[in-house]
Amino acid sequence: MLKMEGVETIDLTQIDAFAPNHISLPIVLTIAGSDSSGGAGIEADLKTITAHGCYGTTCINALTAQNTTRVYDLFEIPYEFLIKILDANFSDLKIDSIKTGMLSENGIQALKDTLIKFNYKNFLVVDPVIVSTSGFDLSKSENLKLMIDCLFKYSTLITPNYEEAREILSIVDSDYYNKKFAKKSNDDINTKEINKIQDIQEMCIKITESSKAKNILIKGGHIPWVINNDEKNYITDILYQSESKKFVIFKSLFVDSKATHGTGCTLSSSIASNLARGLTLIDSVGNSINYVHSGIVHADNSIGKGYGPLNHCYQYQFDFNGENNKLMKFDKFNDEVMISHPFEKGGFLKYLLNHPLISEKWETYTHHKFIKRMGSLKLKLSNFKIYLKQDYSYLLNYAKIHSLALSVAPDLMCIEREVEILSTIINEINQHKLKLFKIGYSEDELDNIKLNDACLNYNSYLMNIAKNGGDWLEINMALAPCLHGYRVAALYGKELFDKNFPNDDDIEHKNDQEDEYKLKKQLYKQWLYDYAEDWYEQACLDGENLLNTHVFEKDENKINVNRLNRLVKIFADVIQLEVDFWNEIVSGSDEQDDDN
To answer: Where would I find the Pyridoxamine kinase/Phosphomethylpyrimidine kinase domain in this sequence (predicted)?
Structure first.
């Protein structure tokens, strides 16, 4: 008989999670288009329905070829096949709630005929989608009229955004629409717009009176209300229940984000799911607005190059690293694999910098064109101002991460080190403030800095490590590329600066730009020299010594292979985040780049 080695049996029968549990899942049907990028349409609907504890069924009435930047093409499913899909679902399943998204003419007719055939009386949420987030026309104007005629009278709720509500008004009450919104002449480019909440309330009344829709929610994400001239402060979603003539105004903070792909699909799916679960209409809408808002705030802004998706499952995400891990560990073999340290004592940082996953990224980071342009004074002052503001905000978060590291410090030496680091960071923050004050920023402006995508991603990554179970070593591993990389980059930039400008008067000035060149030289030189000074070198040495000491904390000769791989990955990930941060600072610059 063949001898089998390395066989392990894992018994799953005794795990509580697999014990029988008698539950009832409300069934929600979505009839909409498919989004190949996964952020909107049927794909977003199913994620949302599942996140709300419901069972999702589908009827895809159109296929799209799209990503976060645009919709490339659309293919409609024939009426006959849609009827087969709906018949199959309705004849077998008890549909508690239906939501519609992008509907073709075939989809509208098939759904209407099915509602009548099966005498459907449960919830129907109609989202009258016209245009995608990226600007593609998803529905013809005649389709909207057909939707109004065929579906609105069966709906529990319709959920147009402001632009869609205007289009509906132009169909159901053209006299009011022309009076309220139409141009005075072909030369009149200033189309009348709303300027107060009462205008939207009036739109709600007109639409329900003329379309037979019982309830309407006009979404306000496209029209944030402005309190101060230059600040978009909040949005309002207005629910109107025609039978009770009751308005409910939901006020939310405006989130200036590109993670808005599929927000309309997600909101209507959430409302349909909440209704299926037994919530009242007002509770369904309020909870759904909060769900979408939270999904935008917790979105991964690195997905896609255009309008990215929100995070549909933010409240259920697993903690892969922490002690409160919801995932079970089965791979005991790799957890127990110990290897000899692939570096000598005191050589951990050197090992990292020469690692194949890190070495090229490290070179790109520490010799970045941001540094090259600073050393040659080719970096635009406007770019440096952006950098200082973003880095100032980053340092505030950096201090918070070190505070979290202090709370999990394994010994007195680490506690003392964290206190020293926090003191250094506060000094660095104050230096940034002085530079920002020098170039004209006020204290109030510093308190209201809007983070760019790269800085948001960087901060989110660090906070995720610190708050989701990362221990002291992992947190400091995530902070190490900034500490050590800035010194290497500054030394390189200082060398370039000293070579290009050996004397204080070696800059050729253009008459109208002399003051700016002087300011650039002063600011860039100070930045490069600050991080090249002895105090910063000592901070790097202290940080390196501490990492070297604690990477050997459990065994002086061996290290767990998973532990080592994770530390390497964290270090590599953060280097890329540093590169991305500087990339965004110099992106769009029209300065000539000298990378040689």
So the answer is: 35-311
